[in-house]
Design a protein that fits this description.
10 helices, mainly alpha, Arc Repressor Mutant, subunit A, elongated
Amino acid sequence: MSAQPKRASSSVDGSNDSPAPEKKAASKRPGLSLKARALNFLSRREYSRLELGRRLAAHAESAEEVEALLDALVEQKWLSNERFANSVVNRRASRVGARVILQELRQHGVDVHQTEIIKEELMATELERAKQVWGKKFSAPPEDARSYAKQYRFMASRGFSGRILQQILGDWEEDPA
């Protein structure tokens, strides 16, 4: 056998029938329509209307085209800000506080009414979730001001309120040494 099988596929005029490698690498999926791209995104996870619109804008000819598609997706129930909000809560609530989740929902353009409903639900379970997060990270209550500050900063960076943190960490100061 010869070591030149690729040259054997050339036609008589010297052109190569196989596609050029540059054309393959030009775009991942050049032939997808805007709706196919949207459904491709939505098949992986929930998106807010604002977030999906931003992703599709680069592939659309006009903003009106994107808005029309988003309206159709909402009408066909492929796209829902309420489902997106619930997925964010389910994904993030076990690790972060209500403040972080609500900020994320606002950034993604979720309706104010919907965020108020979610806020009420999150605040009802905030103390229990904070205790779980604290228990995973720290094995013992703070012993001194330095460890108290460290634990407080960690929990505050996770989005838990100061009131909740005082309930969890506040007892160390009251115990006589």
